[in-house]
Specification:
29% helix; globular; 282 residues; alpha/beta; 25% strand; six-stranded mixed beta sheet; 8 helices; five-stranded antiparallel beta sheet
């Protein structure tokens, strides 16, 4: 059975003036991912509506909001699990059609959910290559997989793991999160989505995960992180996006916000401290 990821179905999307330089040539300011008017219905239930969001390349964007605000529906729409009912998903300036998990993977979108999807009875190397094992002369190339895993963890500054042959069951929460993220990066991801990566972690493990997020950003990988912990958000994010009752009510550089304004936006959908503005539609 052919398991090669299908090529993403892309068509050129019209670019607005803000995405072009004075010479008329498209500039590097074109976001890695753009959502324009994205809505998702489940029968009569409107889960998210009219979301306009830009996720720049190489930056950390924090998606915050109360429970039921629509954050999980939004990331699952981006990940291709649920197609949008309305609106456009634009990747590097080109509209994506027939979005699915396979096309999301082909584009370079990887999502690490709260359950991490790791196998406790397998070691780190086996988890990293599960379903995509390297072979040589018809047998597993254990040496190549082990060396590549060691190198990637080193590149990501994951230094607390004693051996890549440890069973995942023996790892701490922070180490498990690091392995799940490393597995996503190994697949040449350009956008890594993290769903509550520091939930239920201790102080030292949280610090480890936040440092990993900074490392991803420094490597030019865009990160979209969902978090209820505003201390974590203001520690690592370059940008912030606030969901309220299914709508994106505000987004912009983290410097435009403080904890009080973020809490106001989360709870009421508005704040006198910052302008409630949405990304421009195209």
């Amino acid at each position: 059975m052919d398991t090669t990821p299908e090529s993403p179905n892309l068509t050129a999307s019209s670019r607005g003036p803000s995405e072009q330089s004075g010479s008329g040539v498209a500039s590097s300011s074109v976001p890695l991912l753009s959502l324009r008017g994205v809505s998702k219905n489940f029968g009569p239930v409107q889960a998210i509506q009219g979301v306009n969001l830009d996720v720049p390349d190489g930056q950390v964007t924090a998606l915050i909001g109360d429970n039921g605000a629509g954050k999980s529906v939004l990331i699952k729409t981006i990940s291709g699990i649920w197609p949008p009912s309305e609106g456009k998903i634009i990747w590097k300036g080109e509209e994506v059609h027939d979005h699915s998990p396979r096309t999301a993977t082909a584009l370079g979108i990887a999502t690490v959910y709260q359950d991490l999807a790791l196998c406790d009875n397998l070691d780190i190397v086996q988890n990293m290559y599960l379903g995509r094992e390297e072979t040589k002369f018809g047998a597993l190339d254990e040496i190549k997989m082990e060396l590549a895993t060691n190198q990637l963890l080193k590149d990501l500054s994951v230094s607390t793991v004693k051996s890549v042959r440890q069973l995942v069951a023996s790892l701490s929460g922070g180490q498990r999160q690091a392995i799940a993220v490393a597995r996503a990066v190994m697949r040449d991801s350009r956008l890594v989505i993290l769903d509550e990566p520091t939930a239920a972690l201790g102080v030292s493990q949280t610090r480890q995960v936040l440092e990993l997020i900074r490392t991803l950003s420094s490597r030019g990988i865009a990160v979209l992180v969902i978090s209820h912990n505003l201390n974590d958000v203001f520690s690592v994010a370059d940008r912030i996006a606030v969901m309220h009752l299914g709508s994106l009510v505000s987004n912009g550089p983290i410097s435009d916000y403080d904890t009080n304004s973020a809490v106001e936006l989360i709870t009421t959908g508005q704040s006198s401290r910052v302008p409630t503005t949405l990304a421009p539609s195209s």
